[in-house]
Design goal:
Helices cover about 25% and strands about 30% of the residues. By secondary structure, it is an alpha+beta fold. Strands 8-7-17-16-13-14 form a six-stranded antiparallel beta sheet, with no helix packed on it. Strands 10-9-11-12-15 form a five-stranded mixed beta sheet, with no helix packed on it. Helix 2 crosses helix 4 and helix 2 crosses helix 5. The termini are far apart.
Length: about 300
């Protein structure tokens, strides 16, 4: 019965079905978020698709605009995912080696699985390249060549292809640093923590300094424009040095975001929550891992 129902589903219904199978929280299964994630801008089309799934026994209305997949819906979503999966490419490689111990020919046949990570954050990476694509001077190139084999000395240098803190494609300058009286004392440049994308493995890690604000707005220091569920001013980071151990500790606080800030699946309410090495920070539909630089 499930197979016949899936075959008669509309494209909108299939999108909703596969999207709900990947969700983990009730917030993601809200009607508004379902429409946004599946790009169903017309309310009538979304309502019609939801009704078809409910009538087919694949979806249940849990109330308050929340929808959940039934067991039949989970099975149907898994079937759709399997049908839409892109098979991996396999290339046969044949190497001919002539004249070994005489005039005989030997053929070596093998297989190689070819798979690549699709490029993500294309605009981000392009802006990074353009920011660091300035042609170095002759003296800079000569100095790099003379010190190329000196491993210890190159530890103090920044690789020419890597963006610095100010040139990072997701950063918008540095936050102002003020003392306890609110007087500006300069800008922080020391990086002790990074945010690494959990799913986008090929995206650049984001360096974090004290006072950083993260959101979709260009007024913040860290801009994540790819996720529509992130607020303009979503959360703020602060690094406080422990008085006894002198170790810099990273904290995050929510700035009244619409969808909340979560640390290890626990929502951040009033006040600040400390982040540790390996902590999972979820903002909107984006999950990031905290990395502490050990120096």
């Amino acid at each position: 019965m499930v197979i016949s129902r899936v075959q008669t589903l509309s494209k909108e219904s299939e999108l909703i079905l596969t999207y709900l199978a990947e969700t983990k929280t009730a917030m993601e299964r809200h009607k508004r978020n379902i429409r946004d994630a599946c790009h169903l801008t017309e309310t009538r089309r979304a309502d019609h698709a939801l009704s078809d799934l409910i009538d087919g026994g694949l979806l249940s209305d849990s109330g308050d605009g929340i929808y959940d997949l039934t067991q039949s819906g989970i099975t149907a979503a898994q079937k759709l995912k399997k049908e839409n999966a892109v098979p991996q490419s396999v290339t046969n490689i044949t190497t001919n080696i002539d004249k070994i111990d005489g005039n005989s020919a030997v053929s070596v046949v093998g297989t190689m699985d070819i798979f690549t990570t699709p490029p993500s954050y294309k605009d981000m990476l392009q802006s990074s390249v353009s920011a660091t694509a300035k042609k170095p001077s002759t003296s800079t190139r000569r100095r790099a060549e003379t010190e190329e084999t000196d491993i210890e000395r190159t530890l103090d240098q920044v690789a020419p292809g890597l963006p610095t803190l100010k040139e990072h494609p997701l950063r918008n300058g540095l936050p102002e640093v003020r003392n306890s009286k609110g007087v500006k004392v300069g800008r922080s440049t020391t990086v002790r923590y990074l945010l690494v994308f959990d799913t986008q493995k090929d995206a650049l890690p984001i360096p974090i300094v004290s006072g950083d604000t993260l959101g979709r707005s260009k007024k913040g220091t860290i801009m994540l424009r790819h996720d529509d569920f992130i607020s303009n001013r979503h959360c703020r980071f602060e690094i406080v040095r422990d008085k006894s151990t002198h170790r810099p500790n990273l904290f995050v606080e929510d700035l009244g975001s619409r969808n909340g800030t979560f640390v290890d699946d626990l929502e951040v309410f009033d006040g600040k929550v400390q982040l540790h090495h390996g902590s999972r920070l979820r903002i909107g539909n984006t999950v990031m891992i905290v990395v502490e630089i050990p120096y």
